[in-house]
Amino acid sequence: MKYLFEVRIKEGHTAEEYASAWVRASELIQKHHGALGTELRRKIGEPDKLLAIASWDSKADRDAMEASHDSKIDEIIRSAAPFVEVTPIGEFEEPDWVVEPGN
After folding, report:
1. What is the fold, at CATH topology level, of the domain defined by 2-92?
2. What pLDDT score was predicted for residue 36?
3. What is the pTM of this model?
4. Taking the chain (103 residues) in consecutive chunks of 10 residues, what is each chunk's mean pLDDT?
5. Edge-to-edge strands of the sheet including 35-43?
6. In the record, which residues are listed under signal peptide (predicted)?
7. I need a surface site. Which of 13, 57, 79, 100 has the fewest CB within 10 A?
8. How far apart are CA 56 and CA 101, in angstroms?
């Protein structure tokens, strides 16, 4: 499954500031069972908006991480909170099947 959220960088700050915190938190989160990686993407034409994507084996694995993660993750998130606004987009299942041209 994918967990997506939008990050808006507040004026006077940079995406790189947030990316630094993102990497530190992601390194800890990725140690949890079922974590399959994270991505942070900048919106075309709006460099102060980012799309964060976390991939998991299942929603249950992500929920388990949320329920029992290291307090250092919360500290990192709190350290970035003053210069960003985070809006959850949602949790998405992997598709049952994918149709790709040429296959």
Report:
1. Alpha-Beta Plaits (3.30.70)
2. 96
3. 0.86
4. 97 95 95 96 96 96 92 94 96 86 77
5. 35-43, 46-56, 2-9, 84-92
6. none
7. 100
8. 26
